[in-house]
Amino acid sequence: MRLLNVDGVHLDIVKVESFRPPYPPYLILSHTWSQDPDEEVSFHDVHDGELHYFEKKAWRKKVRGFCKVAKNVGYSYVWIDTCCIDEASSAEVGEAINLMYAWYQSAVACFVHLEDISRDRGGMVVFENSERFKSKPPRWFTRGWTLQELVAPKKLYFFDQHWHRLGSRSQLAGAVRTFTGIPLDVLHGKDPHEYPLDVRWSWSRGRETTKPEDQAYSLIGLLGINMSLVYGIPAKGALELLENAVRERYSRDSFGSGSLHSTMADRLRQIDSQRLAKSQAKHIGYGDRGDDDDEENDVDDDDDDGDENDYDDDDEGLSILVSVLGIGDPRRRR
Length: 334
Known about the structure:
This protein is α/β, with parallel strands linked by helices.
């Protein structure tokens, strides 16, 4: 497992280090990728010391802010998928996907970055009036990979696009349940693996992935299995591979009251309807608009270097976060 060391003198110079268990305490990031993947800060960017990543949008909006918040609450190590996994190695990607759930579960806490929410622009209304926004929640709640990232961590905290703290998973559980359909006891920390397989699988309803195969592979950890990954096949083929792996791993009694096959069939119908809706939207001129085009909610590209405005470093907010993470006050440690 690789982690970023953010304990250097300059936050703009992060260092990649490799570890075997037991891992040092670390915080883990959950986020949605940019519409343009080249804007993400990659493993090779930070590993090879290619300083051009300072100019990437994801560095300015997301990575630097996460590293700063982690350092402020007293942690030296963080994990970010784009920076810590070598996407050029298919073997490494496959291994990482099979271990991903465990990595989120082992973190001290998960920090969620909601790129389309701004607390200063009324972003909390989305959570305070969740029924009103149920049909169009923040993008993070609609993505396939973020399902396991929501339920696996011991502790989870939501932040807006400027890294202002919005609340914990428990504090916002009512709204999160409205957006996701996940039971409240899971959002308050119950192990999701105590639920039957078909129920866990059903939580993926309504979620989308960029690669069709990831409709299946994003569920590996939640279903408690390991399997080889095959890309370049339709979503149906990947889901069938997943179903076979589940049947090899579990007895029939573990499937729950519903049929696992019928749950999968329902998921396939949903994927087909999603594709049809996207096709129709493009035909009438709307297209599949990404969040980067949402000027109302997006942060100004030029407003990314002012530490006083970008990050929620107020004494009250920092003290609360330090307290719930169970560490000493980092301001007395530096």
